[in-house]
Every structure is written in structure tokens, then in C-alpha cells.
Design a protein that fits this description.
Blueprint: H1 5-31, H2 36-52, H3 61-67, E1 71-79, H4 81-86, E2 92-93, E3 98-100, E4 111-120, E5 126-130, H5 131-134, E6 139-143, E7 149-158, E8 163-168, E9 189-194, E10 202-213, E11 223-226, E12 238-240, E13 246-254, E14 264-268, H6 269-282, E15 288-289, E16 292-295, H7 299-304, E17 313-318, H8 323-327, E18 334-338, E19 341-342, H9 346-354, E20 361-368, E21 371-378, E22 380-381, E23 408-412, E24 424-429, H10 434-437, E25 445-449, E26 452-453, H11 457-469, E27 474-481, E28 484-491
Antiparallel strand pairs: 1-4, 1-6, 2-13, 3-4, 4-5, 5-8, 6-7, 7-8, 9-10, 9-12, 10-11, 11-14, 12-13, 13-14, 15-22, 16-17, 17-18, 18-19, 18-20, 20-21, 23-24, 24-25, 25-26, 25-27, 27-28
Helix pairs in contact: 1-2
Length: about 500
């Protein structure tokens, strides 16, 4: 920590005053060991010493002076119409920082500049930023805090975590920062440094508002929420703790207006450190894989499945020819522990599995129809995301019917619908009905209800009637939406 001349002078004066008080105390004690003044001076002296040991109130200027030179602005030239459309801000900001340079004429690709921030993690020019800032960049330029510009290249990137590792050549000993090895506490002070709206070198301060925020479907991150103002262009920039270590990399904001409203999200330092190490050593992130579609257990699903609690991850479907399928994990199993460690929910299970190396032998604890089992298997390697279009599950309108008062119309699934030897397709959903409220959409295929396969709308109605006769409030249906299979709790009656 640095100390100004005025601050140091005041502390020296305070030390002198404490020394004078100590001399006075000794004098009084020698003159009269039982004097009331002796006890009073002792207490004053102890208080003065304690106060002297506490840091005086101060700002962040010394920390900022130390870390700010390691932060830079970044511009990535993008010439790709589809990529530009995909990366636009969405209000709830999974990606923030793109500004269009120009629009191409009809039939021509559009040129844009993706603008963000980044920071050096070593003196030889290795740096990090968010993947979405540089993903489609044809040329990348950074501008350091001293105004110098350098070309940069992407060494490797990981779309899943939204982290990219860069290499900047041409500099002589770049200033760099350290990544924290401990998670921050809620309420802890933080400093964000970045390049909002291209202004460069902007510092804001706030606190850690929350941790473990779930803001993007399928993400392995549990984002840190901060209230330090971050805006478009801050993406990829660091958030520091009050010791000057990086506790997170800014990645997203919630913004109805497009500007900061005090709700920002940073990728945790632990994720940044782990992913960057893999990108540097292996050129990619290799993650463990079970091969199951999983979901959270809502209170309604728990009631429909006769479960006493909502802890664990519900297996919607084991994918064919995967470690889980080969080991015998089934749809409807509830994964409650992995390697003896309890599994709180589906996100925790995903994190635990992805942190393990492919080939790791694990024991998976499941509950199947009330019976506990331990299933041993070896993890596979997480494959790349699917790129093909989802199957057409619209089915046939013939034989359509509307069961109960759910607000949906059903028909037998088309013979070509995959993967299905039966099932009932949802052909229409009332936007104000119960089915829409539970997330059902036209094109979904209901595979079974209450564990019983269905092949006609009448089968669904019978299952609802049976559950009603047993005084059930919810019945659980297994539903196929595109490639994903999940369970839906449908109200009865």
C-alpha cells in the first residue's frame, strides 16, 4: 500500500503524542500507584494505541494507480452480417459492447466494430477478454492506458465460459495484474476498470451485491453481481478487490435503458483462472460429460413424483450411447450425489462434472422410484454444441383434441417425429392458459404422463383423471422440445 506525505506526517505526530502519554502515565504511576488518574490514563493509552493501528479512511487512488495500466480497450473488426446480428445487445445483457461502424449495401456483409475491454495477466503480453467481444473479429487492436496501440491475436477461446485468451506482441514488459485465489464476500468493496463507450481508462467503484447468479441458460458460471457502474464497452474488463486482485471479469448487465442501472455481472476469478490455464496449455477447455439432460426439481414436480424434497438433479433423458446411458441411468432418476458429495441442483451437478477430466471414474448416487442406487461409470468428454436444426415436431392435426382445461390442443405425433415411437404432439397453446404458464409450446411432444407412455390425446386425459381421483394436485409429464427433453408439472383438476 502506498502512503501520501501528509498521511505519513500525521501518523508520525500521532506516535509522538502516544509516547508523551506513555511518559505521563509512567510518571503518575510512580508517584501514586493507586491514583484514579492512573486507571484513566491506562484506558486512554490502550485506546490510542488501538486507534493508531487502524488504517485511516482513504480512497482507491493508490490501488488504481497500480492496476489501471494493465487494463486496455479493445476493438475487433467484424465483417459478418449474421455474426453482427447475433451479437447485438439484448437489454438483459449476455453480451455488451458492440457499436456498428457502417452498414453494407443489400447483398453485402455488414462491417461492425466490437468494442470492449481486456487486461494483461503476464508481462510478455498474454491477456484476457470476453469471447463475445472478439469471436468474429477479422482484426483486433488494443489501446493501452498510455495511449499506445498494438495488434492482438486470439490464442484460444471458450464459448461456454465466454472467455478468450489473447497475445499482444511488440511491447516491452506490459504491466499486468493478478487473479484472486479466493471468492469475494457479499458487501466487499470492488473497483471496475474498463472502456465504456470507447472512453477508455474509466474507473468505477461499488460492492459485491450477490454471488452465484444464474443468468445464462446452460452456463457453467455462477456470476458475481456488482453495483459498480459498467456499461457497453466494459465487457472483458476486470473487477478488482481492494487489494488490487481481479475477482471477476465483467461480462453482462441488466439494463432496460441500455446503460448502467447498478446491476452488473462478472465471470468469477476461479473460472477465469481455470479456463485461461487450459486455453494456454491445451488450446481448448476439456470438460467431463455424463450425457444426460437434467433439470431442477420444482415443488410441483416433487409433489407429482411423490418426493419429500427438491434437492438433486432430475434426469429428463439419458442421451444415446453416452456414459450415463451405458451405465444404466434412466429418465426419471434423481442424481443426489457425485463421488459422495451431495448434489444440490442441476447447475451444481453440471459444474461438478465439468470440473472433472474425461475418463475420470465416478460413482453417481441416484434415487429411482424411492430406491437409492450407486452407479459407477467413467466420464466422457463434453462434445461441441450441436449446429444442426432441431427436428420438426409439428405432427399431424388429425385427431386433435383439448384435454381438460389446460389450454392446449393435442394430436398423435407424426410417424416421422423423432425420437418417438409414439407420443402426443402439442399443436396449439392458449397463451393465457395453464399449459403456457408451465412452458408448453406448439411442437412439443408429450412422451409420457405419470411415468406411463402416451400415444393419443385420450391417454393424456386418462392420466389426468387418474391423478385427480387420487387427490393429486400435479401430474408430471415428460416432454420433448426440439432436442431437449424435460419434465413439466401439469396441474390436475
Amino acid at each position: 500500500m502506498f502512503e501520501s506525505d501528509d498521511s505519513g506526517r500525521l501518523r508520525r505526530i500521532a506516535k509522538i503524542l502516544v509516547l508523551v502519554a506513555a511518559i505521563a502515565l509512567v510518571t503518575v504511576c510512580l508517584a501514586d500507584p493507586v491514583s484514579p488518574t492512573r486507571g484513566h490514563l491506562q484506558r486512554w493509552f490502550q485506546s490510542a494505541v488501538a486507534t493508531l493501528g487502524k488504517p485511516s479512511p482513504r480512497g482507491f487512488e493508490d490501488i488504481v494507480a497500480r492496476v489501471k495500466p494493465a487494463v486496455f480497450g479493445i476493438r475487433a473488426k467484424v465483417v459478418d452480417e449474421q455474426a453482427s446480428a447475433d451479437d447485438q445487445d439484448q437489454g438483459f445483457l449476455p453480451r455488451f459492447g458492440e457499436t456498428p461502424d457502417e452498414k453494407g449495401a443489400p447483398g453485402r456483409a455488414r462491417s461492425t466494430t466490437s468494442q470492449g475491454s481486456g487486461f494483461f495477466i503476464s508481462s510478455d503480453g498474454y491477456a484476457v477478454t470476453t469471447n463475445h467481444v472478439v469471436e468474429h473479429g477479422t482484426s483486433i487492436t488494443i489501446e493501452t492506458d498510455d495511449g499506445n496501440t498494438y495488434p492482438a491475436r486470439v490464442v484460444a477461446s471458450d464459448r461456454q465460459s465466454d472467455i478468450a485468451l489473447l497475445k499482444v506482441d511488440g511491447g516491452l514488459g506490459f504491466k499486468f495484474v493478478e487473479i484472486a485465489d479466493q471468492a469475494p464476500r457479499i458487501g466487499e468493496g470492488v473497483i471496475a476498470v474498463g472502456n465504456p463507450f470507447g472512453l477508455g481508462g474509466t474507473v468505477t467503484a461499488g460492492i459485491v451485491s450477490a454471488r452465484s447468479r444464474d443468468i445464462t441458460p446452460g452456463s457453467y458460471n455462477e456470476f458475481i453481481q456488482i453495483d459498480a457502474p459498467v456499461n457497453q464497452g466494459n465487457s472483458g474488463g476486470p473487477t478488482f478487490d481492494v487489494t488490487g486482485k481481479v475477482i471477476g471479469m465483467n461480462s453482462a448487465i441488466v439494463s432496460p435503458t441500455g446503460g448502467s442501472v447498478g446491476i452488473g455481472f462478472a465471470i468469477p476469478a476461479e473460472t477465469v483462472r481455470t479456463v485461461v490455464a487450459d486455453l494456454k496449455d491445451k488450446g481448448k477447455v476439456v470438460r467431463g460429460w455424463l450425457g444426460v439432460s437434467i433439470q431442477a426439481i420444482s415443488p410441483e414436480i416433487a409433489e407429482g413424483l411423490d418426493l419429500e424434497q427438491t434437492q438433486g438433479a432430475l434426469v429428463a433423458e439419458p442421451q444415446p450411447n453416452t456414459p450415463a446411458a451405458r451405465a444404466g441411468i434412466r429418465s426419471g432418476d434423481i442424481i443426489t450425489c457425485l463421488q459422495g458429495k451431495p448434489v444440490k441442483d442441476e447447475r451444481e451437478l453440471s459444474r461438478m462434472v465439468s470440473d472433472m477430466a474425461p475418463g475420470t471414474k465416478v460413482e453417481v448416487g441416484v434415487v429411482r422410484q424411492g430406491e437409492k442406487k450407486i452407479i459407477a461409470l467413467a466420464l466422457g468428454q463434453l462434445p461441441s454444441p450441436r449446429s444442426e436444426a432441431p427436428p420438426d415436431n409439428q405432427g399431424s392435426q388429425e385427431g386433435s383434441t383439448e384435454p381438460s382445461k389446460l389450454g392446449l390442443t393435442l394430436a398423435p405425433a407424426a410417424p416421422t417425429a423423432k425420437p418417438s415411437a409414439g407420443g402426443v404432439v402439442v399443436t396449439k397453446v392458449d397463451p393465457d392458459g395453464i399449459a403456457a404458464d408451465r412452458g408448453l409450446q406448439a411442437g412439443d411432444i408429450i412422451l409420457d404422463v405419470a411415468g406411463n407412455p402416451v400415444s393419443a390425446p385420450l391417454d393424456v386425459q386418462r392420466a389426468l383423471n387418474d391423478a385427480h381421483s387420487r387427490s393429486k394436485h400435479n401430474v408430471v409429464a415428460r416432454v420433448k422440445s426440439g432436442y431437449a427433453t424435460h419434465f413439466v408439472a401439469i396441474p390436475v383438476g
